C-alpha cells in the first residue's frame, strides 16, 4: 500500500520535521508541503491525496475551517500544540490528533491507523473475475462487476451505482478502487470511478454512463482515454 500525503502547516520547522518523518515510513509518499490551507486545497483539486497532515492554527483559514469547506476529504491527522481542540477534531472524523512536539514513534502509530482502517474496510473478495462483497447497512451485499455503472464518493462513504440499485458503503473511494479490476474500471474524477464497458460516449469534459453525465477531471483524462483503447 502506498499512501500519498500532504503537509499543511504554516511553521517551516514543523513542516521539515514531518517531512523527515514521512521519508522514514516506506508506505508514505509526500506529494506536497503547504504553508497554508489555500495551497493545500489547490493540491487536493489536482492530485489524488490519501492523507492530510494538518495544523489547526494557521492565518486566514484554520485547519478545521479548511475541512469544513471541503465536500470530500481524505484521511486527516491533526498536529497541534493545543489539546483543547481534540474533541472538535474527532467530530470532523480525523484519524488521529497529535500534540506537538510528537515523536517519530507516535507519528508512525497514527499513520498505521490509516493502514489498518483501510484493511478493515476493504470489500471481501470472493471471485475477482465476477463479483465482490460489500458491507452496506450492517449486511454484506454481493455486487457483480458487470452490474456496476459507476462509483461516487460522498465524504467517508461511497455510492455504488449498479444497473438495478444504488448501494451505500462506509469506505473511501480510494479503498474501494483498490479492490476493482483495473482492466474493467477507471478513475475519471477525484469523486468518480467508471466502468469502462458502460461508458456510452465522451463529450468535452463529460462522459455519458448509466443515463447520467459525469465530469472528467483534467488529470484523469489521459488515463481514461488509455483505458478505452
From TrEMBL:
The keyword Acetylation does not apply. SUPFAM superfamilies: CheY-like (SSF52172). It comes from Dyadobacter frigoris. It comes from the Bacteria. Residues 132-229 form the HTH LytTR-type domain. Gene3D superfamilies: 3.40.50.2300, LytTr DNA-binding domain. InterPro entries: CheY-like_superfamily (IPR011006), LytR-like (IPR046947), LytTR_DNA-bd_dom (IPR007492), Sig_transdc_resp-reg_receiver (IPR001789). PROSITE patterns: HTH_LYTTR, RESPONSE_REGULATORY. The modification 4-aspartylphosphate is found at residue 55. GO terms for molecular function: DNA binding; phosphorelay response regulator activity. This is Response regulator transcription factor. It holds the Pfam family Response_reg. The keyword Amino-acid biosynthesis does not apply. PANTHER family: STAGE 0 SPORULATION PROTEIN A HOMOLOG (PTHR37299:SF1), TRANSCRIPTIONAL REGULATOR-RELATED (PTHR37299).
Amino acid at each position: 500500500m502506498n499512501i500519498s500525503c500532504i503537509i499543511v502547516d504554516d511553521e517551516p520547522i514543523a513542516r521539515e520535521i514531518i517531512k523527515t518523518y514521512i521519508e522514514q515510513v516506506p508506505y508514505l509518499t509526500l506529494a506536497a508541503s503547504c504553508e497554508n490551507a489555500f495551497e493545500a486545497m489547490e493540491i487536493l483539486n489536482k492530485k489524488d491525496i490519501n492523507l492530510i497532515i494538518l495544523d489547526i492554527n494557521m492565518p486566514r483559514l484554520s485547519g478545521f475551517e479548511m475541512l469544513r469547506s471541503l465536500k470530500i476529504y481524505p484521511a486527516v491527522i491533526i498536529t497541534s500544540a493545543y489539546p483543547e481542540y481534540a474533541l472538535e477534531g474527532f467530530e470532523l472524523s480525523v484519524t488521529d490528533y497529535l500534540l506537538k512536539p510528537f515523536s517519530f514513534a507516535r507519528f508512525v502509530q497514527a499513520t498505521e491507523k490509516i493502514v489498518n482502517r483501510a484493511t478493515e474496510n476493504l470489500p471481501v473478495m470472493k471471485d475477482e473475475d465476477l463479483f465482490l462483497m460489500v458491507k452496506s447497512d450492517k449486511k454484506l451485499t454481493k455486487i457483480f462487476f458487470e452490474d456496476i455503472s459507476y462509483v461516487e464518493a460522498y465524504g467517508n462513504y461511497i455510492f455504488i451505482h449498479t444497473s438495478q440499485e444504488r448501494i451505500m458503503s462506509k469506505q473511501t473511494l480510494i479503498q474501494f478502487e483498490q479492490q476493482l479490476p483495473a482492466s474493467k474500471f477507471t478513475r475519471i474524477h477525484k469523486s468518480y470511478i467508471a466502468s469502462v464497458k458502460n461508458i456510452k460516449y465522451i463529450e468535452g469534459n463529460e462522459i455519458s454512463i448509466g443515463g447520467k453525465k459525469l465530469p472528467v477531471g483534467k488529470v484523469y483524462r489521459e488515463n481514461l482515454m488509455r483505458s478505452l483503447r
